[in-house]
Amino acid sequence: MSFAWLKRYMPRGLYGRAALILLLPVISVLVVVSVVSVQRLIEGVTKQMTTATAREVRLVLDPRSEPRDAAILAISVNSISQSAVPSTDIRSWYDFSGIIVIREFSRLLPTLRAVSLADSQLVSLYIQTEDGPIEVRFDRRRVSAANPHQLFVNMAVFGALMTLVAFLYLRNQLRPITRLAKAAAAFGRGERVTYRPAGANEVRAAGLAFVSMRARIERQIEQRTLMLSGVSHDMRTPLTRLRLSLAMLDDDEEREPMLRDVRDMERLLDEFLAFARDAAEGETELIDPAALIRQIVQDCERARIPATLYKIVGEGEVRLREAGIRRAVENLIGNAVRYGTRAEVSMRLTDKSLRIRVEDDGPGIPPDRREEATRAFTRLEPGRNQDKGTGVGLGLSIAADVARVHGGSLRLGQSDRLGGLCADIVIAR
């Protein structure tokens, strides 16, 4: 039997699940103890006491007994009129033991007409005799235990107290896990928060492994940045000399193709430098994404790049790294106009997410190669137009990295309006 449907009702957070694990046994024990108490204490004891009292009532009503017997048994017997007899049994809705009292008296006293438990201290029996109806009154403690609800009150109070104590202890055990989760999530967004392993041995071991992993990744990123920055910087000097030498040539037909090759090499170096810079550089700040998108499109128009603003939906500020978002959107626009004739940019801001979309009318990317396209140094020119320029396969990779450090993702699809590639940067708020 599958219990998969229960997952939708389970708490998502660690504290919620821990509280559920803690409360379920406590509540189960309370329910079992309550059921046993009702069956044994309330029902069993009340039944025995009611049976004994019913025998005493029969003894008092026996014509052969002496009048002093009623006084000895602390039972009051009074003659009443027919109109004073209740038409039905009387008890409070919360008086569970009264149900058993009424049931047992009705079974043991055949001439009983009604039972009144309106007064919590007294029991009134209305019995029909040959001389007319009589009222038999005696203390309620003769037929049921005094304050039977105290057991449930004590169970509830001490159960809540022990649950609170256990939850406080459990919270101290869960706090190192939540701190580790927050540190890991922050590192995934490119932020570094102070974290010191603590807690139980298993949690401490996981924390030490995370700290070691974070240090190793940071060293690799630093080495990659230094390597690419050094290579790109060292290559600019000979390229500058080569450009100056070509500028001195008199033959324009030979000079222009070689200058174009130099410009392509400089553009490739710029892409290497952009990739070498970490996507998480800079601090996040509250910015207006709509204003940023409008500014990026205006800069493209001034640079005579065929990019237009299609639609902006929603207003507000979002905590972003402005330089990273600008670089990602510019890379998507550059890819769009390289493999198509135009690019259209749109933005949608909701309470839950920010979506920046760039569409083009180019050949697009096949669905089975879209994941491969976001990897660094991956070129898909066999499936796209090579006549529009060359690249090193870093545009989509940089955009994906920027989206990832913001806690989002880069999604590639097909544009329904333009027919080419549709690239979405989706960031949760």
From TrEMBL:
Source organism (scientific name): Roseovarius pelagicus
Membrane topology label: Multi-pass membrane protein
Enzyme Commission number(s) from the entry: 2.7.13.3
Assigned keywords, A-Z: ATP-binding, Cell inner membrane, Cell membrane, Kinase, Membrane, Nucleotide-binding, Phosphoprotein, Transferase, Transmembrane, Transmembrane helix, Two-component regulatory system
CDD domains according to UniProt: HisKA
Record-annotated HAMP domain positions: 171-222
Pfam families (UniProt xref): HAMP (PF00672), HATPase_c (PF02518), HisKA (PF00512)
Catalytic activity: ATP + protein L-histidine = ADP + protein N-phospho-L-histidine
Stretches assigned to the Histidine kinase domain: 230-429
SMART domains the UniProt entry points to: HATPase_c, HisKA
Transmembrane segments: 151-170
GO molecular function: ATP binding
Localization per Swiss-Prot or TrEMBL: Cell inner membrane
Protein name: histidine kinase
